[in-house]
Amino acid sequence: MHLVIAAPAAYVLLRVKMNVRRHLKEKNTIPKIFAETVARHGDKTALIFEGTGETWTFRQLDEYSNRVANLLLERGFKDGDVVALFMENRSQYVGLWLGMAKIGVEAALINFNLRLEALVHCVTISDAKAVVFGSELNEAVSEVHGLMGKAVQMFCLGDFDPTRVPRGTECLEPLLDNAPTHLPSRPQRCFTDRLFYIYTSGTTGMPKAAIVVHSRYYRMAALVYYGFKMTSDDVLYDCLPLYHSAGNIVGVGQCLIHGMSVVIRKKFSASRFWDDCAKYNCTIVQYIGEICRYLLNQPVRDTEKQHRVRMALGNGLRQSIWEEFMTRFNIPQIAEFYGATECNCSLGNFGNKVGACGFNSQILPFIYPIRLVRVDEETMELIRGPDGVCIPCKPGEPGQLVGRIIQNDPLRRFDGYVNQSATSKKVAQSVFKKGDSAYLSGDVLIMDDCGHMFFKDRTGDTFRWKGENVSTTEVEGTLSRLLDMKDVVVYGVEVPGTFKFQKTDLRRDGFDPCSVTDRLYFMDSRTGSYAQLNEELYHSILSGKHKL
């Protein structure tokens, strides 16, 4: 069984690796690869924007991106400059960053939900010389324009009202209409040069700008394409934000690299999801875990099975609803994968194993040098052996996923963040062997005897309970179903003395009913049911009189 599973995964890695080697040798970039796609699929539908029904062929997308490139050249932008993109999903979003990439201008893809300080931070750390924003975000941009600290050119896409945008803002559409459509001269760029920046939200502080190079964009899109046996005839439904890698690389990448038609939705809609799939004859849908729960919480409708969808592609689908999702919506395959924007240890569940986020061969580990390593259960620090090297986990033992860094290998390199300090925090030394370096995912996974990987928790999302580590994710999933609620947040708080007979009351604690306005409940071991927590019971728990 293990050999049967390992063979497809090894084949996928080998194929992607050979393609990467060719692109490296030919000094290709995503725009050059897209040019090959246009040559093969020129008049085929590339993008459909659900918001307007507008359809672009590959040739039209190519011409639009050429207009963007030529306009920026006319305005003095050059290879290595950065332009921030701040707008909601639309086909133009793809054309804009692609056009920038054609002349070596790097896009900073900013979350359109950001406001005030966070928005200023993202524009500032990218060192953007211009911001292209959607008219739907006029107010957000106007709020911060005076706080950017330097002169930044502003371009507005959409309904233009000069009274509602910062002074000096130009309307982008007429400028693009008058720009030439020919392919501009290409910069001297290669496969490992920077393409754009995607902002990742760290556990603390402001968003970090992760560097996405051309080879990483290709690798992320190609691994899922070949691993899950997609074809250029598939139609992919992309309702995820284009400022993130799932929507813009895993989704849109299938269009740019492999010639697939992609339906872009402005924002996810649970009530319209299956109607859209049927309308556009989609065969692949994208998801993140929350989307699956939202869809399952919708009333049963006939349209939810009247579609051609053969595969759901994404990450974060909880094992507790995995089979229910497949059965209710008649989805033959769950294409679950794992991998942050910046990581070098992506995984794919190519065998449709229920609950798994990926697979790694135990027989041929050298093919893809990743592993789970032991961590301290309290601090999540790496545990090392007498030789100073990290200790690999055995099957069934939770550990942090790490990937060996080899900078001259596009599949193994770690490009990090714009901030060097943030980059350093994600790298550890002597992980696989003495003197090497590895990327720290910050995620805890468990591997079974066959090599299937199962997501457990992001580092820190556990709490100790009666000598055991309890996963907040598992508790959230259980409560979500029991309470029939879409969103449930579970976190651990410190309870001094709960398991010791001490009668000293604490001044403050995370579950003090006098400090918390929401109603609080606890499992009453005496009755076997949940009871509302009041001040008297709170102090009783702290003193050890009432046991949990």
Automatic annotation (TrEMBL):
GO function terms (MF aspect): long-chain fatty acid transmembrane transporter activity; nucleotide binding; oleoyl-CoA ligase activity
GO-annotated cellular components: endoplasmic reticulum membrane; plasma membrane
The reaction(s) this protein catalyses: a fatty acid(in) = a fatty acid(out); a very long-chain fatty acid + ATP + CoA = a very long-chain fatty acyl-CoA + AMP + diphosphate; tetracosanoate + ATP + CoA = tetracosanoyl-CoA + AMP + diphosphate
Keywords carried by this UniProt record: Ligase, Lipid metabolism, Membrane, Nucleotide-binding, Transmembrane, Transmembrane helix, Transport
Domain (AMP-dependent synthetase/ligase) ranges: 34-401
GO BP terms, alphabetized: long-chain fatty acid import into cell; medium-chain fatty acid transport
Subcellular location: Endomembrane system
Keyword field contains Membrane: yes
Family of this protein: Belongs to the ATP-dependent AMP-binding enzyme family.
PANTHER family in UniProt: LONG-CHAIN FATTY ACID TRANSPORT PROTEIN, LONG-CHAIN FATTY ACID TRANSPORT PROTEIN 4
Protein name, entry field: Long-chain-fatty-acid--CoA ligase
